[in-house]
User: What shape does this take?
Amino acid sequence: QVHLVESGGGLVQPGGSLRLSCAASSGPTTDYSAIAWFRQAPGKEREGISCINVKNNYTWYAQPMKDRFIISRDNAKGTVYLQMLSLKPEDNAVYYCAASSVAARGCSLLIMAYRNWGQGTQVTVSS
Assistant: This one.
C-alpha cells in the first residue's frame, strides 16, 4: 500500500509558476513503479498530465501539457515533482498524484492503472 501526499498548490497569477510535490511512502520496499499527475477541474473529467517511471526515469506527457509542465523525481526523498510554468486560468483544478505498479519500464496516463491516489491539492490561477 502506497500513501501519497500532494503539496504546493495555491493561488498564482496568470503567467506564474508553481511546483507541486508528491511524497510517497510505501514501507521498506518501493512497491510501485510509476507516479503520475492528474487534474480535475469543476464539472470536467479527470485528465492525465504526466507520469514518470521511478525505476528508470522514463517520462510521458499528455500532448497539451508538454510545453508547460515538467515532471521530475527525487528517489532519495521519495518525492515526485510537477513544475508548472506560464499558468493560465484554464489550469484551475485539483491536482492529484497517483501510484501504479503495472508498468515495469514505462508509464501511462491510463487512470485505471493507478490504484493509490493522494488527496489532491488545489491550484487556482487568477489575477
Remarks:
- The chain is about 0% helix and 45% strand.
- The chain has a mean pLDDT of 93.
- The CA atoms of residues 52 and 59 lie 4 Å apart.
